[in-house]
Amino acid sequence: MTTLIDIDARGMQHCETTALGVLLRHQGLDLSEPMLFGLGSGLSFIYWDGKNLDFPFLGGRVKPFELTKNLAARLGLELAVHETSSPRKAWENVASAIDAGRPVGLQLDSHHLDYFTPKVHFAGHIVAMYGYDDRTAYLVDTDSQGGAVTTSLDGLAQARAARGPMAAKHRSFTLTVPKDAPSPQSRIVPAITACADAFLNPPIANLGYRGIEKAGKLVRTWLQRAGDPRRDLPQAAFLMEKGGTGGALFRNLYRDFLAECAQSIDSDHLRTGHRLYAEAATLWTETATLIAKAGESGDAQCLDQAGDLLGDLSRLEREAMQTLRRLAE
């Protein structure tokens, strides 16, 4: 027997916003992907390196599931989250929601999903699930991964049970839009200013504009840091541009969010912020290109140029966020 929910299965560019779009459209709330990302104050930066990593990681957004929590709080959504160490209970949590006609969000390790490429471990991946039968789970993933896809129940169970960096305990969640929820437009300014405050006041030097500045110094050492430069540097560049970021390490999404906001909010601060993030998006793509070229050619000068661009980006994004924070005035 197959249980399927009738949904709008549009795949988007980023996994978490894709899942949020599926769940919210089913509730009658249809927002663009940039608006979902921006209202969830999703933009950030982290330079992450450690003994358990083969190579440094550049992240351009808040940690997995933080965007969902931010969006739910900002729009007054009812967010029901289930976590458990029991695979049996984890399945019951999902199957009962789908049986009741509600699509479910899942956080899991993409490595174990049958359709997913490339085969790398990433336990912060998020998908929407809208059906199942005796062998198969019906999911919605990003457009680049196929949109509406299927995977085996065994693979899904392994993906949900995975451990490691960013893993959650079989996390599943549903969203409900209450009748008295505030309009998304009324929450734009608080979302932007909250994102700006966090970016401008990072608790450690690896985050926010300080993290970008740090990356600008350390990227120059990446040929020595890499175990296999021809593999590691192009892979890092690929993740920046093609790893579900929407391009330019999520800066394209935030640029488009600000552009959409400027259609309804008349503000010089907003227009300036949009212009600066449009410039930043271009520089991030140039940075990724230089990193890939350095790995392919072994030319350290490319990394010096990338480091210079990252220094410029730190200053540029700091200026952009300082300007956007003034929206609260």
UniProtKB/TrEMBL annotation:
| Butirosin biosynthesis protein H N-terminal domain ranges (all copies) | 14-142
**Which named protein is this?**
Lantibiotic ABC transporter
Sequence ranges assigned to domain DUF4872 in this UniProt record? 155-324
